[in-house]
C-alpha cells in the first residue's frame, strides 16, 4: 500500500485500506497457491501476507504448504512447519486465521483407517508473531473407536420406486455390505419383509447371494410404520443385535410416504430413545402407479 492510515483512525473499526490502482501481485509455482490468504501484522509497516497452497506436494504423503509474502519485496517464502508422522496428506494451509500476534494454520484432511472405516481428521498449528511453532492442536489424533456397529438397512420397495432405481438400490446395498460386518435388511411398501437379520448375515456375509432373492414389493409407502418395526423387531438380541454396538438405521426412499397410519413424530422419538443413529438416502422418483 502507498499510504497508511493512523492507528487512531483504524482501531475503532479494525478497518484497512486497499490499493486498487497499483495492486501487488504475488506469484508462486505451488498448486493451490492463494486458496487461503490472511494479513498478519500491520502490513503497511512490517506486516506480511500469509498464503496457503493446500494442494502442493512435498515429502512422501505430504500435501499443503504455507508461504509468507512480503509486500515490500513482492516475494514469498515457505514457512517451515513440523508435522507429526500421521499427518498424511493433510492439505496444510486450507484454513488460515490470524489474530493479534498469533497465527493458526490448519490442515483438515488427515485420512485415518479404523478397521474397515475411513475417518477424516486434522491438525492445526499455532505460530507466534515470528512464525515460530508454539503448539499443535490436538497433540495427537483420537484413538480409533472400539465399539462395533450394527447397521439396519430399510429400503423402499413401494410402487413409487421405478424398477430401474430399485435395481440400482440393490447394487448400492451390495457395495455397502462389502465394507462393514453386521447388517440386517428390511423392505417395505404397505407390506413388510425381513430379508435377513444380523445373525443370518454373520453366517453368510455374501451380499450378492443374500440380495439375489430380494424382489420389489410394490404398493403404498408406509415409511413411518417401517421405521417403528425396525426399532422394535430388528434391533433385538434374538435377531443378533449387540447391546454394546453403535446402532445405525439407513433408510433408502424417494420420500413419498403414502397411506401410512403413522407419522414420523409417532416413531422418531422411539428411535432416539433406543439410541439409533438415523440416515436417509434419497432415490430419484420416476413415479409409477401404486
What does this structure look like?
The chain has 290 residues and is an alpha+beta fold. It folds into two domains: 7-137; 149-282, Rossmann fold. The protein has six helices and 13 strands. The strands form three sheets. A five-stranded mixed β-sheet has the order 11-10-9-12-13, sandwiched between helices. Strands 1-2-3-4 form a four-stranded antiparallel β-sheet, with no helix packed on it. Strand 12, helix 6 and strand 13 (276-282) form a beta-alpha-beta unit. Helix 5 packs parallel to helix 6 (264-273). The longest helix is centred in the middle third of the chain and has 15 residues, at 163-177. It is elongated and about 75 Å long.
CATH topology of the largest domain: Rossmann fold
CATH level-two architecture of the largest domain: 3-Layer(aba) Sandwich
Residue-averaged pLDDT, rounded? Answer: 87
Distance between the first and last residues' Cα: 69 Å
The ordered string of helix (H) and strand (E) elements is: HEEEEEEEEEHEEHHHEHE
Rg (C-alpha, Å): 27 Å
Main sheet: strands, sense, barrel: 5 strands, mixed
Note the overall shape.
elongated
Relative strand content: 25-35%
User: Helical proportion?
Assistant: 10-25%
Low-confidence stretches: 1-13, 286-290
**How many independent structural domains?**
2
Tally the beta strands: 13
How many helices? The count is: 6
Helix-and-strand structural type: alpha+beta
Physical arrangement of strands within the biggest beta sheet = 11-10-9-12-13
CATH hierarchy, class of the largest domain: Alpha Beta
Name of the CATH superfamily of the largest domain: von Willebrand factor, type A domain
Amino acid at each position: 500500500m502507498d499510504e497508511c492510515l493512523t492507528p487512531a483512525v483504524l482501531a475503532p473499526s479494525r478497518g484497512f485500506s486497499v490499493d486498487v490502482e497499483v495492486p501487488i501481485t504475488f506469484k508462486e509455482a505451488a498448486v493451490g497457491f492463494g486458496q487461503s490468504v490472511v494479513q498478519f501484522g500491520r502490513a503497511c509497516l512490517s506486516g506480511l501476507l500469509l498464503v496457503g497452497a493446500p494442494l502442493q506436494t512435498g515429502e512422501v504423503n505430504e500435501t499443503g504448504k504455507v508461504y509468507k509474502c512480503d509486500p515490500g519485496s513482492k516475494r514469498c517464502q515457505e514457512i517451515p512447519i513440523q508435522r507429526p508422522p500421521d499427518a498424511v496428506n493433510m492439505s496444510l494451509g486450507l484454513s488460515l486465521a490470524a489474530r493479534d500476534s498469533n497465527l493458526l494454520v490448519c490442515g483438515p484432511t488427515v485420512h485415518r483407517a479404523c478397521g474397515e472405516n475411513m475417518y477424516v481428521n486434522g491438525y492445526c498449528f499455532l505460530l507466534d508473531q515470528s512464525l515460530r511453532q508454539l503448539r499443535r492442536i490436538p497433540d495427537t489424533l483420537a484413538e480409533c473407536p472400539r465399539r462395533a456397529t450394527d447397521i439396519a438397512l430399510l429400503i423402499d420397495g413401494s410402487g413409487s420406486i421405478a424398477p430401474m432405481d430399485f435395481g440400482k438400490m440393490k447394487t448400492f446395498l451390495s457395495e455397502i455390505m462389502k465394507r462393514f460386518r453386521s447388517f440386517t435388511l428390511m423392505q417395505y411398501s404397505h407390506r413388510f419383509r425381513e430379508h435377513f437379520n444380523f445373525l443370518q448375515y454373520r453366517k453368510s456375509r455374501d451380499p450378492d447371494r443374500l440380495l439375489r432373492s430380494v424382489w420389489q414389493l410394490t404398493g403404498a409407502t408406509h415409511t413411518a410404520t417401517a421405521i417403528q418395526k425396525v426399532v422394535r423387531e430388528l434391533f433385538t438380541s434374538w435377531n443378533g443385535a449387540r447391546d454394546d454396538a453403535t446402532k445405525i438405521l439407513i433408510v433408502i426412499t424417494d420420500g413419498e410416504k403414502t397411506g401410512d397410519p403413522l407419522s414420523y413424530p409417532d416413531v422418531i422419538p422411539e428411535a432416539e430413545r433406543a439410541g439409533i443413529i438415523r440416515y436417509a438416502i434419497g432415490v430419484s422418483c420416476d413415479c409409477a402407479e401404486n
